Amino acid sequence: MSGQSRESFPCREAVVFAVRGEIDIANAARLCAGLLQATDRPECGCLVVDLSRVGFIDLSGVRALMECYRILTREGRHMVLAEPSSPAARILDALDMGQTFEIYPIVETALVHTGRQRYEEGPFTGVSGAD
């Protein structure tokens, strides 16, 4: 899994959206809505989804990420995944999602092509509040 093999383009502003907890059928739609809401400003050209604190993700979670990716791509925006936890990396690898997403090993490498960054804490998963 690597985002380095793809051509990148400079983004004006990137939003880093940290996802934590479990992503499953019970909250996948809410996650997608939260991701799209985080990018709801014209200057935001890139969404970096930080998956480092994801304890579990199922197929519905991957579908939610893909739906957000499709929507943002249609709008001319960029979405990448960064720092997937072991459970997230396993399912992304098993589904060969590196063919669809740019996946970076750490958040900082995903931000190299951006001008400005903004950090969003994503309480839109199975765990809300503190870890």
TrEMBL record:
Q: Which PROSITE patterns match?
A: STAS
The protein's GO terms of the molecular function aspect are: anti-sigma factor antagonist activity
Q: Which Gene3D superfamilies match?
A: STAS domain
Q: Where are the transmembrane segments?
A: none
Pfam families per the UniProt record, alphabetical: STAS
Q: Outline the extent of the STAS domain.
A: 15-114
What the entry lists under InterPro entries is as follows: Anti-sigma_ant (IPR003658), STAS_dom (IPR002645), STAS_dom_sf (IPR036513)
Per its UniProt entry, which superkingdom is the organism in?
Answer: Bacteria
Family per similarity comment: Belongs to the anti-sigma-factor antagonist family.
Q: What is this protein called?
A: Anti-sigma factor antagonist
> What organism is recorded for this protein?
Actinorugispora endophytica
